[in-house]
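Holo prediction. Input below; ligand is adenosine-5'-diphosphate.
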Amino acid sequence: MKLKSISLKLGLWFSTIFIALLLILGFILYGIFTNFLTDFIEQDLVARGNNHARNLEGQFTKEAIEHAIGMERGVSTRILITDSNHQILGSSIEPNEDMMEQINIKKSFHEGQILENDWQDHEYIVSVSPVGNDSGYVYMYYPSSKLKDMTFVMSLLSLITSLGIMFVAFGLIGILSRLFTKPLLSMKNATIQMAQGQYKQKIPVKGNDEIAQLGNSIQALGEQLQYYETTRNEFLAAVSHEIRTPLTYIKGYSDVLSKGIIDSREEQEEYLKIITKEVNRLSFLVNDLFEMSKLQVGKFELTKEPAKMNDIIKKIITNLKPAADRKELELKGEYKADVLFPVDVRRMEQALYNLIENAIKYSDKGKVTVISFLQNEFLVIEIKDTGIGIPEKDLTKIWERFYRVDQSRTRKTGGTGLGLYVAKQIIESHGGYITVKSKENEGSVFSIFLKAKSEI
Ligand code: ADP
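Structure of the complex:
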């Protein structure tokens, strides 16, 4: 049978270990107790035998022997006194076979000692004490049954206490393991909810132990998932919007053209220009999406060829000039240096398009300037604008996928939050890097650094 509840498993493990420890402890205590008790009884037996022997020394008479025997009546010990030839002179009870066993050996002794201590298999613990001048011997007997009774009572008592402790311990273990598993259960419920799409979960945990840390991690994971879910939805809405607008233009103008109702050649060309511009916009958007998906699956490979960066900049400026004109922004390039450079032209165009388009998109007045110059071993391309700028707190986040500063300001400009992410990846894959400096309501400067001495 497989145990499903961790509290039951923990309980069983703890109980098994606890019982094993209790048993070992019981055995050790039992050994110590019986050893201590038998030692004590043996010493007492020899001491009392010696006392009697000392008292009988010099007056080994019938009266003295009777007196010694009389002293041992009414107690559990027995006494037996013999002469030096092991002939019995007196005894507190009628000696039986077990009592006679040691006497029959007829050995002589010079000092008090224990003759039999095996209380498990013999009826008595036996000691002997010689009476001075070889007059005789005092044998003392302690009945093993007394000792057995005592150890039995002790075993019974310790069994009852062990059972009591075990019950209390079981209860405690039960409560403890439930206490441990309670937060785990709430984590399980939280993850089930998360699997059903409710990512933001509150997991009640206390303290900072491993279980609390796990709870906090799950909660953080849920918040992160919720963030991705929200940004993904916003991204999808933004992408659909970005696609729908140019498509509406293309459809509208191509419908008019195909119906042949426009006669003026200039007007026709104007319409065609608008269609081309919108197709271009769509194509850059689709490229951003394409690059993102390639980056996601790690299939981002460059096709480099020697090219002049200024030519790429000029092409993009020409492409975006109408957009700048519409907003009455000045868009110009300043070409202070150029290098023949191994680049993936289409991708570098994409990166520059994203940056220059942003500069136009987020500026309402002034100008957008693209400057290329040499600085140490770098060819630097600066994209400067006099636009709305970027709040300080967002400066590090703008490079993230789907990140867009403040929805309210991006709603009117449109955008997908992909532009800077893709531009950064493209520039870094060319061995370069990109930085940003920006002040709100004053403008932004994006600087691309490309190693000018790269091999072609
Ligand atoms: P988007 O498609 O929203 O423009 P980007 O990744 O290109 O996405 O840019 C991310 C965010 O950075 C934008 O939402 C915008 O708020 C901010 N941003 C980028 N470039 C500029 C700029 N030149 N001036 C002001 N804000 C900018």
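The radius of gyration is 51 Å. That is the main takeaway for now.
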